[in-house]
Structures are given as C-alpha cells and as structure tokens.
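Support reply, case 0932

Customer input (verbatim):
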Amino acid sequence: MIMRYRGASTQGTFWQRHSLSIVLAAILIAQTALAVLAGHHVWVGEQQHAGEPLEAGEFWIWFFWEYNISLVADTYGVILIVLLSKRLVEKGSAESN
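Our regenerated output:
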C-alpha cells in the first residue's frame, strides 16, 4: 500500500510504518506504571523510617519529582527522536532532498 503525505510517498501497512513508535510508547506506559508502584513502596518506607504520616498528596508530589528525573525522561526523548527522524528522513519527502 502506497500512501502520500505532504508529497512524501510511504509504503507498507500502518503497523510497518508505525511499529517502532507504538512499541516505544508501550514501553513508556509500562515504565510509568512500574514507577508508580515502585515509587509508592519506596516513599512509604522512607516515611515510616522518618516517623512521618502517610499522606497521599505528599506521595504524588514526591513521585512526580522523582519521575521527572528518571529513566522515563530518556524514553520520552527516544520517542521524540524516532518520530522526528521518521518525518525528516522519509524517502521522497521535501525535507530529505
């Protein structure tokens, strides 16, 4: 199947054209879910060790700080690089000439 998008011709099925992006997005979602579970476990341990109360709002503030500096930020960067590379390097596109 040949599709045209802004003058660039692409071949293949939807899965063939977007499989890498879909897999990377699935990895990002899985990492996010695991980070929430593991982060809650770590936070509860730290709070109990310090003798602090377990307040859900405090966990989310702590989690989002830790999450922003974690491996997930790197995965998001890879997704952006792949998507931008696919757009700029497609054969026949104006950008690749």
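We compared this against your earlier run and they match. Two observations from our side: The mean pLDDT is 76. Residues 2-96 form one domain. Please reopen the case if you see a mismatch on your end.
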